[in-house]
Amino acid sequence: MKPRLPLLISILLFGYAFLYIPIVSLIVYSFNESRLVTVWGGFSTKWYGELLQNEQLLGAAWLSIRIAALTASLAVVLGTLAALALVRFRRFRGRGSLEVMVTAPLVMPEVIIGLSLLLLFVALETLTGWPAGRGMDTIVIAHTTFAMAYVAVVVQSRLAHMDLSLEEAALDLGARPLKVFFTITLPIIAPSLVAGWLLAFTLSLDDLVVASFVSGPGATTLPMVVYSSVRLGVSPEINALATIIVGLVSVAVLIAGGLLWRQERRNRLSAD
Amino acid sequence: MSFKPALPSARHLIIAVPWFWLALFFLLPFLFVLKISLSEPTLAQPPYLDLIREIEDGFVTIVVNFSNYQLLLADSLYLSALLGSLKVAGISTLLCLLIGYPMAYAIARSPSHWRLPLLMLIILPFWTSFLIRIYAWIGILKTNGLLNNLLMGMGLVDSPLAIMHTPIAVYIGVVYNYLPFVVLPLYATLIRLDLTLLEAAADLGCRPWKQFLLITLPLSMPGVLAGAMLVFIPVMGEFVIPDLLGGPDTLMLGKLMWTEFFSNKDWPLASSLAALLLVALILPFVLLRHFERRAEEAAT
Fold this sequence. Notes:
Mean pLDDT of chain A: 89
Distance between the termini of chain A: 27 Å
Largest interface: A-B, 95 and 97 residues
Oligomer: heterodimer
Distance between the termini of chain B: 18 Å
Radius of gyration of chain B: 25 Å
Strand order of the largest sheet of chain B: 1-2
Order of helices and strands of chain B: HEEHHHHHHHHHHHH
Structural class of chain B: mainly alpha
Helix content of chain A: over 70%
Shape of chain B: globular
Order of helices and strands of chain A: HHHHHHHHHHH
Largest sheet of chain A: none
CATH architecture of chain A: Orthogonal Bundle
Number of domains of chain A: 1
CATH class of chain A: Mainly Alpha
Strand content of chain B: under 5%
Low-confidence stretches of chain A: none
Radius of gyration of chain A: 23 Å
Mean pLDDT of chain B: 88
């Protein structure tokens, strides 16, 4: 069937316009002189200057980045282990429960994850004394728990499509399994680990709801500061922050996309 | 199996480490939600009475309190929040499918070197902050926002449209944020569709719209249902979108739970709301697992 081309193109144009107009409007108005977000008062970069002087926001951003980096690293290790277990070991006790526990965090409403973890932390603290109070540690644990599920999905699809003959050849030639894992398996799945790390980092950096539940006094993350400022109304400083985030993300995604594209082309060439 | 662990215990470690992490930090917490939902609120830190109490040395008593659940049933506020969540989740799932299906279809039928960039463009907004993307819609939808300025400037409306703080704003926000979750699974099933089936149908004189209804749509059903559940389940408990874009009459479970917890400091009632939400999500979750498995089987 030859689908009607103009129809398909207009569907795509409409869809992408819907996705990108809000983001473009944020960027445009971040350079607006006027405080009123919908009135154009001329080009200015003063909101970026104010952003850099907002110490509360910068402190929160630094905390969020540290939490996200820790979360992403932990989530990559745990998520990769979960993916290895599910792809490489066909039958084991607890497989069904592991499958459910890896899928459920992907869709579980954040309010439930946040509340339930908070209640766990409170109960653990009265029983064992750990965690003493809530803050960065508890946020990292909470974020790792849902982020590892995303990592597991990304790594699983890579592992499932991997050519096993390379590992078999190495094993036949006498390499030890651990060495095979580090010299063959790991380099092959490395792109998915990088993608998983970035995904976990972004999810953690972005989370408001779960962090609000499991955070304590003194641990205010960037989304919490943004949320309280957005609740008070539209502010050009948040537009400037949004533009910086969009810029960083676009650069990262373009680089990742380029790498992915090159690898896919190389795979296709070697497959031919 | 080719991957034989170095030590007999390596296999166990690979399985046990993620299993215990998730059991401790994902599964076990639900038991605490259940437990606290059966306790009484009190003015203390933490603000609930423990179920197991020691009366006098050695004697313990377990006090189970169902009043939170009785309140959920008695006060129509909670029932309307459940219905409100179901309505918002249902309608936005449908809207996501109506917009996402044609997009996924168009991407799957585009020239192969276009597909990856087009998919990347779908995912890119998802990588930028969720909160900030919701915030962007405030600037567009509010009374003196971009949309109203544009419509009034074009002379299409005389007075600004009240969209902000209405259910329409909530639907726009939800569809905007959850669109990638339907486009990706739909694309995955549509790209694997065997095009020779369509050719055969066309050769036998089947019209294009009938080919779509009889072949493409049924074969992409696993993708449709997986995508639908990926939207429906999280939206049921959504808090940020109804809070920032919705009005006071936008009643949803996630928002109500947040208020009970943070404003009213009623942890037991918030827990029973969480339990109610969990129960409402069991069936959609089972469906999701079922259709994801079917989609996987279709892929291999």
